[in-house]
Amino acid sequence: MKNPLFLTLLLLLTFCQEKVTPPTAVEPVPHPRQIAWQELEFYGFVHFNMNTFSDREWGFGDEKPEQFNPTALDARQWARIAKEAGMKGLIITAKHHDGFVLWPSAYTEHSVKNSPWRDGKGDLIREFVDACREYGLKVGLYYSPWDRNHPDYGKPEYITYMRNQLTELLSNYGDIFEVWFDGANGGTGWYGGANEERKVDKLTYYDWPNTHALVRDLQPNAMLFSDAGPDVRWVGNEHGFAYETTWSNLMRDSVYAGMPEFSEKWATGQENGTHWVPAESDVSIRPGWYYHAYEDHKVKSLPQLMEIYYNSIGRNSSLLINFPVDTRGLIHEKDEEAILKMAAKIREDFANNLALDARISADLERGKGYEAELAIDGDYETYWTLPDAQVQASLELDFGKGVTFNRLLLQEYTPLGQRVTAFELEIETDGQWKKIAEGTTIGYKRILRFPDVTAEKARVNFIDGKNIPLISELGIYNAPKLLLPPAFGRKKSGEVNLKALDEGLEVYYTLDGTEPDPSSPIYSQEFTIDAAATLKAISYDPVKKEKSETLQVDLDLAKALWNSSQKDGEKAFDENPNSYFTSTDNSLTIELGESLELTGLTYLPMQARYPSGFIQEYSLELSTDGKTWKEVSRGEFDNIVNSPIEQRVQFEKQNGRYIRLKALKTVDDNPATFGEVGVLTR
Ligand code: FUL
User: Fold this and answer.
1) Whole-prediction pTM
2) How far is ligand 1, taken at its centre, from the CA of residue 658, in Å?
C-alpha cells in the first residue's frame, strides 16, 4: 500500500473503532452470585417432612418422630426426575413450620434420629445432597424460621437454636446455592407443650442482618431467599406467575419477610428500586405443597404447567416447581409424568430459533463490539446497543422468505442493570409494518406469545427505557400447537361448549359414538344436549393436519327443570364442579320437574382445596309425589377420600320425579357436602 493518506485514514478508523466506550451501568446491578443464579432459571422444590405423614400442610408441632416413616425413600429418584425435567437444582424442606428436622441435629430430639426410618441412623439431607451431586444438580435448603415445636420459640434463646441449626446445615453438606426463609411465621403452636399463640415481631425478632451474615459467612455463594430478599424475592403468589411488568429492582429497605401488604405493593419490583432482588415464582405441581393421596387426580395439566412456564421464566423470574414427595418417599408417578411432559414441550417450543437464519440489522448501533449480529449469536455475554442517550431503535430481521412464528424471546444484558420499559414486535406485510405484540419490561428473559403470523420481515422496536437497551439475545420461534383434546363445559340448561386449548386449532365432534375427524361437524358455538348422549371431540391442527386424542364425555339429562327447596341446594346441580352444597340434615332432595325413567345417579364430591363432608355411606330414594319414598340403592363410596372423583350408582329402571340422596355417614362426620349430582337414564 503506497498511499500514505489511505494508510493514515485506515489507522484512524481502526483507532476510532477501538475507542467505542462500553456502556455504563444503570444502578442497581446484580452481584456475581445473582448473575450465576439467574442462569439456572428452572429448579425444583421438594416438600417432604413430617406433614407428609400427618397428612397436613402446616403441622402443629405436637407430632411424634415415630410418625416419620417412609417405606421406599429414594432421593436419587427425585434427582433423576428433576434432571430429566431440565431443572438445575433442588431445594428441600430441611425444617418446616412443625419443627421436625430431616438431619440428626445435635440441638433437638425432634428429628429423623428418633424416627423408625433407617433405624434412626438416617440423614436425609445427606442422602439428598449426595443424590443431587450425582445428577449434577445444585443443592438448596428451605428452613422455616417459625417453629411450632420448639419450647423457646418467641424468646431470644430460639434465635441461638436457629443459628446453631443453620451452622450445622451450612457447614456439613458442601455448597448450597439457595437458602429459603419462609415468610409465614408466628401464631399458635404446641411449643413444647405450652400449646398457645406466640406472636413475634417479624421485622426484628429474627435479627435478620446477623442471621444473614452467618449464612454469608458459611456459604458466600448462596442466594438468600425471603419475601424481601436480600438476594432473591418471593413473587407474591403461589400460582407461579410473575407480572407483565416485573423489575429485578426492589426498594429493599422498605420490605421485610411476612409483611402483610407485600404482594400488592412490592412483588412486581420497582423501576426505581434501590437493590437488585430478582423474583422467584414458586408453585406446587398439585394444589398442596405436601403430599395428600386425595390430590392424586389434581396434578397440574400440561396447559397449566406451560402457562406457569410462560408467566414465570417468560416474565423475568426464575421458576421453582414443587414436588410433594409421597409417603413412600418417592415423587408420585403422576407428578413425574406431568413434569416430563412439560419439559418435552418446553424443548419443543424453543427447538428452532428462526432468527438465526435471518439477516439482522439495526437502525442504530453503538459501534464495534455492539453490532446487531450479537443479539443472535447465542452468547449472553455479548449484546447489541446504542450510542449513549438513545433509547429508541429497532432490530430488524429479514428471513428472506415467508416464515410462520408465534413467540418472541428477548434477553437484556442485566449485569449492567435492567433498562427497557416499552417494546413492540412488528411484521411487514404488503410493505406495511403492523404491530402484533408488545411488552413493558424485559430483564433477564422475556417471552411474548401471540397467534401465528407469517412474514418475511419482522422488527422489534425498543420504545422506551431507563437508558440505552442492551440486548443480549433475540429469538423467534414457532411453538407447535398444544394438540390436546378440547376443554368441555356444560350449563344447567344443557348447553355444551368446547374450547381448543391453543390458538389456531379447530374442534370437531360427534354424538353418535363414532370417532370424530375433520369431516365431522365443526364446533362453532354452544349447542344443547338435553338427553343421554356420548359426546366425542378432537382438536385439529389444519396446517399440520394432525388431530389430538379424543375427548369422551358421557352426558345425561340436562338439569334445566331441576329444583331444590333446600337453601343453596341448587349448588349441587348447577353444572359447576367448583361450587357445592352443604346440607344441614345430611341429605339432598331434588325435584326433577318431570317424571322420568331413571337407572342411576352420579355424585361428585366437593372439589375445594380443603374438602369436608364427603359421603361415605349413602342411601338413595325415589318418589313420584315427593311424599312416599322408596329406597333404590344403599352402599358405600369406597375410596372417596383418596380419589374424590365422580361416583356412580346404578339400579333397576324406576320411575321418579323426586330423588333424595342421604349421607348415612360422612368420612369425617362433618355435615354432608355435594359437589355435583346427576341422574342416569340409560
Ligand atoms: C409457604 C409455606 O407456609 C408453605 O407451607 C410452603 O412451604 C410454601 C413454599 O411457603 O409460605
Assistant:
1) 0.91
2) 46
